[in-house]
Amino acid sequence: MAAAGGAAAESPTPGTSNVAAVWTEPAAGYGFLVAAINSARHSVDMSIYELRDPITESALVSRARARVDVRVILDSAYSGKSVNAAAASVLSAGGVHVVWARSNQIFHAKYVVVDDRTAYIGSGNLVASEYATTRDFWVADSTSRDVDAITATFSSDFGGNPGAGVPAGGLVWSPGSTQKLVALISAARTSLLVENEEMDSATIEQALADAARRGVNVEIVLTEAPSWTSALAELAKSGDHVRVLSRARIYVHAKVICVDCSLRSGTVFIGSENFSTSSLSYNRELGVVTTSIAAIQAVRRAVTSDFAVGTTVGAPSTSPPPPQGVSGVSIISFRSSIAPGAEDSLVAHSSEPGDSCALSVQLPSGYSSESKGLGPAQANQSGNVTWQWEIGPSTRAGTAKASVSCRSGSIEQSFTII
């Protein structure tokens, strides 16, 4: 097992880790984590910012009573002790080894290690009342070097001696994660999808602005909040595409970056780090960078969907607005121009929730595209339906036409292959 004190200095550029599974909240629910805890035969290590979930607490107590070594670190900074007091009492009474993180450092990481074999790393707090309304992601990492590094860091933290997180693979630890995330953003060549709870780091904001200025298509989604209004407006002026969601729709608690992500490739960061100086430079946080296709597809799907229904921040685009549909169909998100080999997307809205729709694309050559991702799709309960497909690398330049046909009507939209 790696030793916390003997870790070598890390490169600012994060490596990558293999991710065995990914869960997108709120759709997935937290049954996977309870099942993982219940499967433990030797040990469970948990570091969590907020714990108010009777089912998870019961699972931890059950394992402790089965003579599994269960250790839990609870945040105590600011209101942490009052927020986590009830859980600490339940766990301690049930035989779980519980410690409070030191009061002068926020322990904002959210992870669980089962039997020193699999680490579950996420952005979500274990607060049952928030599960149904919050956008979060979790991943399972069974790479032995990563699990050893996380366990070694946990043991140091549990013993009251927190230091730098032990490096391994694609793990991204705070304190000290700013340059790794900047390096990840700076590596983007074609696209960035970003979803975060906060936008309060000048360094991250500069990296996102620089990406747009060098021609990267940057799409950013947050929940609307006065604290970030100015920063988001500045990003929009720099060319980033920024949208905000109302709390009534979903609360964006996720912290993800998707770099050059397509249906088959890309690089994704998923973790607990907010884009704030405190989170990146002072808190205990944990995230992971991966090229796992499952993680790429999950993040692309969720962030694209959230972006499609968000409210645009900043001046209207110079591109002509999408035409209004007839008979209850409209196009609410599309790209007016795109290069061969890139991933395209289109979001339509039907006045009929759950409507059956189909998308076809006529290429500049006059032929119909046969790309995977086109064809039939079903609108969600809000009436929105999304398609994602690849523009073939040999597609010739010119005007293409997208045609959406639903039970409630149809609409066509021209776009340019550049």
Textual characterization of the structure:
Strands 1, 2, 4, 5, 6, 7, 9 and 15 form an 8-stranded mixed β-sheet that branches. Strands 10-19-17-16-11-13-14-20 form an 8-stranded mixed β-sheet, sandwiched between helices. The protein is α/β, with parallel strands linked by helices. Mean pLDDT is 91; it is low at 1-11 and 315-326. The chain has 3 domains: 19-170, Endonuclease, Chain A (2-Layer Sandwich); 178-312, Endonuclease Chain A (Endonuclease, Chain A); 329-417, Sandwich (Immunoglobulin-like), CATH 2.60.40. It is built from 9 helices and 28 strands. β4 (69-74), α3 and β5 (97-100) form a beta-alpha-beta unit. The protein has helices spanning 31-38, 54-65, 80-93, 144-158, 178-186, 202-213, 229-237, 277-281, 293-308; strands spanning 21-25, 43-48, 51-52, 69-74, 97-100, 111-114, 118-122, 126-127, 134-141, 171-174, 191-195, 199-200, 217-223, 241-245, 251-252, 256-259, 267-271, 275-276, 285-290, 311-312, 329-334, 337-338, 343-350, 356-362, 375-378, 384-390, 398-406, 409-417. α1 (31-38) packs parallel to α2, α2 runs parallel beside α3 (80-93) and α5 (178-186) packs parallel to α6. It starts with 20 loop residues before the first strand and ends with a strand.
Total of DSSP H or I helical runs spanning 4+ residues = 9
Number of domains: 3
- At the fold tier of CATH, the topology name of the largest domain is Endonuclease, Chain A
Mean pLDDT reading: 91
- The percentage helix is 10-25%
Main CATH class of the largest domain? Alpha Beta
The profile of the biggest β sheet is: 8 strands, mixed
Report Rg: 23 Å
Low-confidence stretches: 1-11, 315-326
Identify the overall geometry. elongated
